[in-house]
Amino acid sequence: MPLHMTKIAYSAESPASLRAWLESHAGGEALMTTRYLPTRHAEMIGGSLYWIFEHALIGRSPIVGFEQRESDGRWHIRLEPRLIPVVTKPKRAHQGWRYLKDEDAPRDLAEGESAGDAMPPKLARELMKLGLM
To answer: CA 34, CA 104: separation in Å to the nearest integer?
Structure first.
């Protein structure tokens, strides 16, 4: 089973803007920058980067690989340029990225199931604050 990672969609105004940014790289790869290469990076190839938006996991982008930038030594996380919607799952915000085991990852939305069928991120966050999720 591949290992995944979570990261805040910090520059996205909405899930739609995140999808648009990813799809703007169609025919290539979307690149996210990080300071350090994850220790377990080899396990993450074939896994996914799960995006956090408004304190909830909302979608994922498959990880293609990692490569170091020559200019400053930072690392690119190479992603497939697509956002695969997942069942919304509460997730606290954090800096940088975190590992996510396969068994803890939310499932992809089924064919014909819409993100509207899943719990809205704001409601999930409120329920999490109340200790109900």
So the answer is: 23
pLDDT in tens, 105-121: 999 998 777 655 556 66
Helix (H) or strand (E) holding 88: strand 84-90
| Domains identified in the chain, total number | 1
Q: Which domain holds residue 72?
A: 4-129
The DSSP call for residue 107 is P
pTM, two decimals, is: 0.84
Cβ–Cβ under 8 Å, residues 75 and 33:
yes
Per-residue CA distances from 99 to 3, 49, 111 (Å): 7, 9, 27
CATH code for the domain in which residue 80 is found: 2.30.130
